[in-house]
Amino acid sequence: MTHELKTGGDRGYLRIATEEAFATQEQLDAILRLVKEGRADKGTVSLWGFYGTSPSERTTFIRERLLDVGALRLQAMDEAGIDKAVLALTSPGTQSLFDPEEAKRIARNANDFLKDRCEAHPDRFYGMAAIAPIDPEWSAQELRRAKEELGFHGVQVNSHTHGHYLDEEQFDPILRACADLDLPLYIHPQGPPDSMIGDMVGAGLDGAIFGFAVETSYHAMRLLTTGVFDRYPNLQLMLGHGCEGLPYMLYRLDYMHKAGIRSQRYPRLKPLQHDLSHYMRNNVIATNSGLPFGPAIKLMIEVMGEDRVMYAMDYPYQYVPDEVRWMDDLEIDPVQKKKFFQTNAERWFKL
Ligand code: CA
Q1: Per residue, what are the HEC states of the chain?
Q2: pLDDT, tens digit, 9 for 90 and up, residues 18-28
Q3: Residue 314 is among the residues annotated as catalytic for this protein
Q4: 315 vs 1: which has the higher pLDDT
Q5: Are 327 and 311 in contact (CB under 8 A)?
Q6: 188 C-alpha to center of ligand 1: Å?
Q7: Among 118, 157, 225, 295, which is least packed, fewest CB within 10 Å?
Q8: Are 122 and 80 in contact (CB under 8 A)?
Q9: N- to C-terminal Cα distance for the chain?
Q10: Which residue out of 314, 322, 329, 333 is catalytically annotated?
Q11: How far does the centroid of ligand 1 lie from the alpha carbon of residue 57, in Å?
Q12: pTM (2 decimals)?
């Protein structure tokens, strides 16, 4: 242990954790019912079949902590030196559900619950909205309510909705609402859809170890390559887990994207106003949730710019206070470190 972890800015910055999860009992009951009835997507069966029912110490801790947006969470934050947390309804949100009315009810109730919790602890908790992408028009209205009535700071979409992606025309109301309301769009992983998952479960690789990043980076690449950020130049896309690996690959993504456009190999790939690295430096924001890994954070700062990389813990899935110490000790410029832990989150979420 190199130093004590305290809240209050004793190291020159506050620590704001930006991808922190909660659940509602209503949400978990609905997802577990689908799993039990054999109606859930394979990725949901793998993810919530495990987290929802495993008796292990880790999953029991996670279930208890997801449902608490009060004393237990605040104590965990205090013990890890986390000043503030930006909270979102845990993956897959409502996106494993098939009944639009149920999905909307659960999203709306979760938003009301989160607003109440944020009002109870206004200097500790901040909200991101839950929506029900299965009904894009309703989701756009809920985003307006989230911004104007609930005082939320962004929206979390848990990647695909039954194998459908936000670049598809049906979801345009959601993108438009984010752009109009100036709400950042955080795309968080869930299990890959049945159309992609293949033998990932058999291989033990569908979840956070690997499959999450494959599927979520695919989602982001679909948005980046179809002109979403030409249509909505102010839209800000947030990606966790080291930007799901994209910054490491950026040269190749750019090179092959341009080659694909030049050759007219794919009807879907049309010329854009900018190359992909421009959008990565103007429309994408990364967090290091679950990835307290110095080389990755330094690379993201170099590739995306020091204003676009934020700290996240991924509580309660990865509650390891020592990781906060490693990030405190990260060898980057002190100005960059304050941006990483505090001021980038304040800026992009408007805290
Ligand atoms: Ca997470």
Answers
A1: CCCCCCCCCCCCCCCEEEEEEECCHHHHHHHHHHHHCCCCCHHHHHHHHHHCCCCCHHHHHHHHHHCCCCHHHHHHHHHHCCCEEEEEECCCCCCCCCCHHHHHHHHHHHHHHHHHHHHHCCCCEEECECCCCCCHHHHHHHHHHHHHCCCCCCEEECCCECCECCCCHHHHHHHHHHHHHCCCEEECCCCCCHHHHCCHHHHCCCCCCCHHHHHHHHHHHHHHHCCHHHHCCCCCEEEHHHHCCHHHHHHHHHHHHHHHHHHCCCCCCCCCCCCHHHHHHHCEEEECCCCCCHHHHHHHHHHHCCCCEECCCCCCCCCCHHHHHHHHCCCCCHHHHHHHHHHHHHHHHCC
A2: 999 999 999 99
A3: yes
A4: 315
A5: yes
A6: 7
A7: 295
A8: no
A9: 31
A10: 314
A11: 19
A12: 0.98
What's the gap in Å between 262 CA and the centre of ligand 1? 37
Q: Using CA atoms, how far apart are residues 248 and 156, in angstroms rounded to an integer? A: 24
Other beta carbons within 10 angstroms of residue 168's beta carbon come to 12
Q: Are 253 and 204 in contact (CB under 8 A)?
A: no
- Contacts of 348 by beta carbon, 8 Å cutoff, 6+ apart: 184, 236, 238, 285, 310
Burial class (CB in 10 A: 0-12, 13-18, 19+), 263: exposed
**Residues 89 and 110 sit within 8 Å (Cβ to Cβ):** yes
Tokens for 174, please give them.
Answer: 């959601």
pLDDT tens column, 153-176: 999 999 999 999 999 999 999 999
What is the average pLDDT score of the chain?
97
Query: What tokens appear for 270 in the block?
Result: 């049309």
Beta bridge partners of 338: none
Instruction: Record the tokens describing residue 224, joined without a space.
Output: 């980046």
CA-to-CA dists, residue 150 to 4, 30, 118, angstroms: 35, 24, 9
Which residues 6+ apart lie within 8 Å of 224 measured at CB? 276, 279, 280, 284
Ligand 1 centroid, distance to 20 Cα (angstroms): 6
Backbone dihedral region for residue 87 (phi beyond 0: left; psi -120 to 50: alpha; all else: beta): beta
Q: Find out whether the peptide bond into 233 is cis, omega within 30 degrees of 0.
A: no
| Paired tokens of 196 | 């992609």
